[in-house]
Design a protein that fits this description.
Layout: H1 2-8, E1 20-21, E2 27-30, E3 52-53, E4 60-79, E5 84-92, E6 99-104, E7 111-130, E8 137-146, E9 154-158, E10 165-167, E11 189-190, E12 197-216, E13 221-229, E14 236-241, E15 248-267, E16 274-283, E17 290-291, E18 298-300, E19 304-306, E20 309-312, E21 326-327, E22 338-357, E23 362-370, E24 377-382, E25 389-408, E26 415-425, E27 444-448, E28 464-465, E29 468-469, E30 476-478, E31 483-485, E32 491-495, E33 518-520, E34 522-524, E35 534-541, E36 548-556, E37 570-575, E38 583-589, E39 599-604, E40 615-621, E41 625-630, E42 633-639, H2 640-646, E43 656-664, E44 680-690
Parallel strand pairs: 30-33
Antiparallel strand pairs: 1-8, 2-4, 3-8, 4-7, 4-8, 5-6, 5-7, 9-16, 10-12, 11-16, 12-15, 12-16, 13-14, 13-15, 17-26, 18-22, 19-20, 21-26, 22-25, 22-26, 23-24, 23-25, 27-44, 28-34, 29-30, 31-32, 32-44, 34-43, 35-40, 35-44, 36-37, 36-43, 37-38, 38-39, 40-41, 41-42
Length: 691
């Protein structure tokens, strides 16, 4: 009768039977917090009365660092009333490159239990649409899976499973000690109603214990100890608490013994002690997989090195530069089979291969390993390759690893931006470290408020003028004199209808002349200030007439040292074309997507004219995403993982500089015509960068 009463009181087996709770008490971070009282850590503290809540905008995210790579199979979200209608659960091994393991646009709030599958050190909820006008708020964010590697090198196997168990007492024949180590969260051990009580398990041999997980029934321990013993007689306490919280407790600890016991000294209820499951995890000698292929010697069936693909050598697939690639020869290599191989320098245990394909990808290929570069063993094979980014979990041993393509997806050859091999052993060289992500909160690191005297040039310690003609079929000649401060706190970039003798531009449709018929201004911070990641914004009143093309954008700083466009990367925070008065555009450009095929989105206020007022244009950028906004309204987010799986490589983990310009004519806006009005002033109130 007592057992029935306890179950009726809400002590049914926990919904998280998918495995070990990995996230509780781990380091958590978030895109934002609403207030000091709702930090990221509150969502992983095991306390359902504390919560994380975000700023009132989209997107927002919460992530937890499990400590090392674990196998993840379930996430439980306990939402406050401010929940996500659309969100993703994303996994990452490095906190930089994310894979979406679950996605929904019909989130229901309340408690949502989500099944996922993957190996990850970092797990995050990435919200893209709020269900309310408030932010996102979670009472608890719980990640379950195979415990161990996230706990200072623990193994993933429950060492107590089905081992002999004894207890100080049992409530009845239906709740024996063995029920707490049978791997069944529908059975339990329960004790007599007195203190102290204990449950112990014989691990079979001396083990180094590094974690214990307790899945409590409603009758839990407020005060207890975890103890280890070499002989079942002499005990050493390796964990002790007087504030046990019940539910599921994952305990990181350190101790060695053949026997382990839970020793309860104070019950939380008038009943006894009751456990659905006691799990024990021990240290493993397995090393954490690492990147083995960076900078290693590479060979291929052929390669291309001409005007269409200069320097597309095998080594380019292993240089960790996402803007360079290997391609088979365009004269001999557009045939099957085609292959590329890397020498890891020594024998390695291979656990993962990541391929970032160019559009010339393989529909059928194999991943092979070899001890001598002669005899090959296939560890992965497919006939349905999808291109873009493919992450392959494999298992094999060898010094050499190759992609062996047998069927091309196109009439061209095979081409890879990156070919990354992960595992243990080999002779790895550490790749360059990624820049740090912005702080939380961010702080202003650079700005220009343009408070100079009327007619003064932009601050020469911050800006350099770009003289001469522009790209993209533009019709202006850029002059430093066209950039000046107005004395009212604004920078002016003025486009004028005036010819520049001796200049050369595309033919002007109105005059038929190839002499540049317009002047304007373009300035940049390349020689003064560059930055990677952060929040950058400018308050701008754009120019507006047929043929005008004002812009606020970033260009990869390596452009100034010889990296060509679009390999350097380009981030257009705001572009406006005079012929579309009510719309501005945000776009990114890289080798795999650029120009008219750039990845971007418009922002429209139907019936308005952006040239009639100031607006604030902003970018929030870190190692995993970019979010573009106008006047605080986020309208376009580039998620790194999604980009890599649908467009091509992310090339934005290096310094960029700021550019402001007011172009005339060009491929996109077209040339001024008889309706165009000059002069046209682009006004900039300020530019600010925070990190």
């Amino acid at each position: 009768m007592l057992a029935a009463l306890l179950l009726a009181a809400g002590s049914a087996p926990p919904a998280h039977a998918a495995g070990t709770l990995l996230s509780q008490g781990k380091a958590a971070t978030a895109s934002s917090t609403e207030a000091a009282g709702t930090p990221a850590s509150a969502a992983v503290d095991g306390d359902t009365t504390t919560r994380w809540s975000s700023a009132f905008s989209d997107p927002q995210w919460l992530q937890v660092d499990l400590g090392a790579t674990d196998t993840v199979n379930q996430v439980v979200l306990t939402w406050e009333s401010a929940y996500a209608k659309a969100y993703q659960i994303q996994l990452s091994t490095d906190g930089t490159t994310w894979t979406t393991a679950y996605s929904t646009s019909t989130g229901a709030g309340g408690t949502e239990t989500v099944s996922v599958s993957g190996n990850a050190r970092y797990v995050r909820m990435y919200g893209t649409q709020r269900a309310t006008a408030y932010g996102y708020s979670l009472w608890e964010f719980q990640v379950y899976g195979s415990a161990g590697t996230g706990n200072n090198g623990c193994g993933t196997v429950n060492a107590a499973l089905n081992k002999p168990a004894t207890a100080s007492s049992t409530e009845n024949a239906g709740t024996p000690a063995s029920a707490a180590v049978d791997g069944n969260l529908g059975t339990r051990w329960s004790s007599a109603f007195s203190d102290p009580q204990w449950l112990q398990v014989d691990l079979g041999s001396t083990q180094t214990v590094c974690a214990v997980q307790l899945a409590w029934e409603a009758a839990y321990a407020k005060a207890y100890q975890i103890q280890v013993s070499p002989d079942g007689a002499t005990w050493t306490t390796v964990y002790s608490t007087t504030t046990g919280a019940g539910a599921t407790e994952l305990l990181s600890l350190s101790g060695s013994g053949r026997y382990l016991r839970l020793y309860g000294t104070q019950r939380a209820t008038g009943y006894g002690y009751s456990l659905w499951e006691l799990q024990v995890f021990t240290t493993t000698a397995a090393a954490t997989p690492q990147l083995l292929s960076y900078g290693k010697p590479a060979t291929a069936s052929s390669y291309q090195d001409d005007a269409n693909c200069s320097g597309c050598l095998p080594a380019k697939a292993f240089d960790e530069d996402p803007a360079t690639r290997w391609a088979t020869s365009d004269t001999t290599g557009w045939t099957d089979p085609g292959w590329i191989s890397v020498d890891l320098g020594a024998t390695a245990q291979i656990s993962q291969v990541v391929l970032q394909w160019d559009p010339a990808y393989a529909t059928a290929y194999q991943i092979q390993v070899s001890p001598d570069n002669a005899t090959w063993t296939t560890v992965y094979s497919t006939t349905t390759g999808k291109g873009f980014k493919e992450t392959l979990n494999v298992s094999g041993t060898g010094r050499y690893v190759r992609m062996y393509g047998t069927a091309r997806a196109t009439a061209y050859g095979y081409s890879l931006w990156t070919f990354d091999v992960y595992g243990t052993g080999g002779n790895p060289t550490a790749p360059p470290a990624l820049p740090p992500n912005p702080g939380n909160p961010e702080h202003l690191v650079w700005s220009d408020e343009f408070n100079g005297a009327a007619g003064a040039a932009p601050d020469p310690s911050k800006w350099t003028a770009d003289p001469g003609t522009g790209p993209n079929g533009e019709l202006e000649y850029y002059n430093a004199k066209n950039a000046y401060q107005d004395g009212n706190g604004d920078l002016v970039l003025e486009a004028r209808k005036e010819a520049t003798p001796g200049s050369s531009c595309p033919t002007d449709p109105l005059t038929g002349s190839t002499t540049c018929q317009y002047t304007s201004a373009r300035i940049n911070t390349a020689a003064h200030f560059t930055f990677t990641y952060g929040h950058v914004e400018a308050r701008i009143k754009v120019s507006g007439t047929q043929g005008l093309w004002p812009a606020f954008w970033l260009l990869g700083a390596n452009f100034t040292t010889g990296t060509p466009w679009p390999n350097c990367g380009e981030i257009d925070i705001m572009e406006h074309v005079g012929k579309v008065a009510d719309t501005v555009y945000s776009t990114i450009h890289a080798p795999a997507y650029n120009g008219a095929n750039g990845y971007g989105s418009p922002y429209q206020i139907a019936g308005s004219d952006f040239a009639s007022a100031f607006h604030t244009y902003a970018l929030d950028w870190d190692s995993s995403h970019m979010t573009f906004s106008v006047d605080g309204n986020a309208f376009f987010t580039v998620d790194r993982s999604t980009l890599e799986q649908t467009k091509g490589p992310w090339v934005y983990d290096h310094p960029f500089y700021i550019i402001l310009n007011n172009a005339v004519g060009g491929d996109w806006p077209g040339a001024p015509d008889a309706t165009s009005v000059f002069p046209q002033k682009m006004l900039v109130d300020y530019v600010r960068v925070s990190q």
